[in-house]
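name: query_chain
kind: protein
chains: 1
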Amino acid sequence: MNPIRIAVLVLGVAAAGGALMLAMAPKPAPVVSQAAAPTLAPVPTDQVMVAARDLPLGKILTPADLSWQAWPKEAVAPFMIHRDDKAMADIAGSIVRAAFYPGEPIRRERLIKGANSGFLSAVLPSGKRAVAITIDMQGSTSAGGFVLPNDRVDVLRTVKASAAPGASETYVTETLLTNIRVLAIGQSVEDKNGQTVVTGSTATLELDPVQAETVVLAQRTGQLSLTLRSMLDAAQTGDPARVADGRTTVIRFGVEADGATH
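structure:
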């Protein structure tokens, strides 16, 4: 064979082998340019007082009921209590007038502190009076026992109507007060642990002085009953007078008769 052809053949085989080796060699991973992750500036915070647990109505606060929590300074409201050396001692011993939930900021206007104050007088709004009326423990005069503290009720009075000698007895029911807040049933001042029925021999109502006089007098002249109002009516205001149309319900032998206008 011609030496030139042999040399060309050898060169071709060598070139093919080199190409095969290059094809089979592992390829280096591509270099990916990674931009540096942006760093966020820390948000300025302040320490504010919050409830460490559920704080129900009437709870006397202790330091264990309160804690400090970091709060963004931009979101700190004027009512929030800032951390200082005296704040915890100042709030401890206060009575809760409206419930707090865990983590909720403490507000001074929802607390009251008075060493000589009873619980009910502490939670009673200014200008209001607490008046207890007698109710049936089985609920016959209080919506079947389903009236709970903080519910709204109407107060009704039932009296025996004047009748001619020999005539059958008749009773008249009239609405004395509307949209009245119930402070307590018996000794219970709030609904706890899923309790839905509270029984007691008294219902304590939140009244103004004129309403208090009306109820005290009505207890001596007839039987008082409570009718439960819808929560949707809570925005309406109480009225110490009769209902607007002055209608009453007459009951004869347990049967409701036509209403009469006074």
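note: The chain is about 15% helix and 25% strand.
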